[in-house]
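Reopening: structure tokens for the NAP complex, inputs below.
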Amino acid sequence: MSFDLELKGRRALVTGGTKGIGAAVVHSLVGAGVEVVTTARSAPVTAVDHVHYAPADLTTADGCARVAEAVRQRLGGVDIIVHVVGGSSAPAGGYQALSDAVWADEINANLLAAVRLDRALVPAMVAQGSGVVVHVSSIQHRLPLPESTTAYAAAKAALSTYSKSLSKEVTPRGVRVVRVAPGWVETEAAVRLVERVAVEAGTDYEGGRRIIMAGLGGVPLGRPSRPDEVADLITFLVSARASAITGAEYVIDGGTVPTA
Ligand SMILES: NC(=O)c1ccc[n+]([C@@H]2O[C@H](COP(=O)([O-])OP(=O)(O)OC[C@H]3O[C@@H](n4cnc5c(N)ncnc54)[C@H](OP(=O)(O)O)[C@@H]3O)[C@@H](O)[C@H]2O)c1
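Re-run output (same inputs, fresh job):
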């Protein structure tokens, strides 16, 4: 059996590639020989060979249009799109704290950024008869936490349904579409959260981790996933070794979702 990923020379857009999961995906794809355009609102701290940075706010239609244009100009086309941008800035306080403006922010970041970029870039993949699109969702679309993530979870659920529908439409024309749903991932932001929780509870880092995992209903693996573990999964899914995988969701959560 060959385990050559056959990614050398491929062209990819990775949104949100300067921190967290996105940065790990960029690192992994570049290591596999991929030429990458990535985006964020603020510039990366250090430039990386084979990575072109396109600054944009992807919660706006204009930002998405500028990134699509940068992809065409810098790469001349695209073989892989990994939609990583997302997250939540909603306040705590349950459904009553969620104003129209908060709902719009969550939907723009977690659904419409991907929808707009796909509408701009997937037609060229269909025309070339090949391509892979990955939508990074979250286990929260199945396991929402009502105190602060109802709108985020609902937007990720919409992203998942959109992704499945897109896969049905474009897979017969050569473009695979897959979803990756992480549970808790220990990004730089998560490390800061653990440290804060630990200080507030008067415990150490491991104690802070345990408090967060208890809030998720427990993580059988006993630890969060690492960004590089999520990136490894995504790198496999965009490779030739996953050529029969489309329209499916891959959960990477250390067993957090309690049902089969
Ligand atoms: N971390 C987790 O535990 C976890 C769990 C489940 C799902 N996820 C999902 O995984 C994805 C990545 O999460 P993460 O925790 O790795 O994120 P992160 O560490 O906060 O990084 C987010 C990246 O996206 C960029 N970004 C954020 N908002 C943007 C915007 N409006 N326009 C353009 N770029 C933007 C950020 O750069 P700038 O700030 O400079 O713009 C950064 O590069 C998200 O979709 C998230 O919902 C994460």
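Strands lie at 11-14, 35-40, 51-55, 80-83, 131-136, 175-182, 249-252. The first strand starts at residue 11 and ends at 14. Marking as resolved unless the reporter disagrees.
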